[in-house]
Design brief:
With 186 residues, the chain is of the alpha+beta class. The chain has helices spanning 24-57, 132-139, 165-168, 175-178; strands spanning 13-16, 19-22, 66-70, 83-92, 95-99, 104-105, 114-116, 129-130.
C-alpha cells in the first residue's frame, strides 16, 4: 500500500515533482463517500418518481366525495362485502377521514386504500367513532366477522329459550353448535 506522511494530518493529496497523487486509503475513502452520495441521490429520484406515478394513477378526492373503502379479510365475515361505502369528512396531510352510515371510522386512510364511488347514502353520519370491523358488522346482513355458536345441553327445550346465544342473536343454530344432535332452532 502506498502511504504518505501527510495523510495522518488529514491532507489527502501531495505534490511530488509536479505530480499529484493520493494514498490508497484516502482514495478508497473518497470512493466510498462518493458512492454513498450517488446512492442517496438515486433513492430520492426513485421516491419522487413513485410519488409522481401514484399521483397520475389516482384521481384527487375532495371533502364530501363518496368512496368505496377496501375492507381487509380479517375485519369482515365470509359473506360480507369486500368494500364499505363511505364519505370523505376531512383531509389532513394527504390522509383522509371517512364516515359511514354507522359512524366515523377511527383510523385515517391513505389515498390508495379507497376508490371513488358513484354510490351514495342519504342518512346522516353519526358523531360516533368506530373501528372498520364495527362498521362492517353494523352494515352486514350476517352479523359481521365470526360466528355465533351456542353450547346448549341436550334437552327437550334445547335452543328454544333466550338462554341460547344463537336464538338471542335471531340466528339459526349451525352444525358448529351441536354437530348432528337434534335442535329446536335449526
Amino acid at each position: 500500500m502506498k502511504i504518505h506522511k501527510t495523510c495522518f494530518q488529514n491532507v489527502c493529496s501531495i505534490s511530488d515533482e509536479n505530480d499529484m497523487y493520493q494514498c490508497d486509503i484516502c482514495n478508497r475513502q473518497e470512493n466510498i463517500s462518493s458512492q454513498r452520495q450517488k446512492a442517496h441521490e438515486g433513492q430520492k429520484r426513485a421516491a419522487e418518481k413513485m410519488i409522481e406515478n401514484t399521483g397520475k394513477n389516482l384521481k384527487s378526492v375532495t371533502v364530501g366525495n363518496f368512496v368505496l373503502l377496501n375492507v381487509p379479510k380479517v375485519d369482515r365475515g365470509p359473506l360480507d362485502a369486500p368494500n364499505l361505502i363511505g364519505k370523505i369528512l376531512k383531509i389532513n396531510n394527504d390522509v383522509y377521514q371517512i364516515g359511514t352510515k354507522s359512524g366515523i371510522i377511527k383510523t385515517w386512510f391513505s389515498r390508495s386504500d379507497f376508490q371513488i364511488s358513484g354510490a351514495q347514502f342519504v342518512e346522516d353520519i353519526p358523531e360516533e367513532y368506530i373501528s372498520v370491523r364495527q362498521a362492517v358488522a353494523n352494515e352486514s346482513m350476517f352479523g359481521g366477522q365470526g360466528y355465533n355458536t351456542c353450547k346448549c345441553t341436550v334437552s327437550k327445550t334445547q335452543c328454544q329459550t333466550k338462554k341460547c346465544v344463537c336464538r338471542k342473536a335471531k340466528q339459526m343454530c349451525s352444525s358448529k353448535c351441536h354437530k348432528s344432535l337434534p335442535c329446536g332452532n335449526k
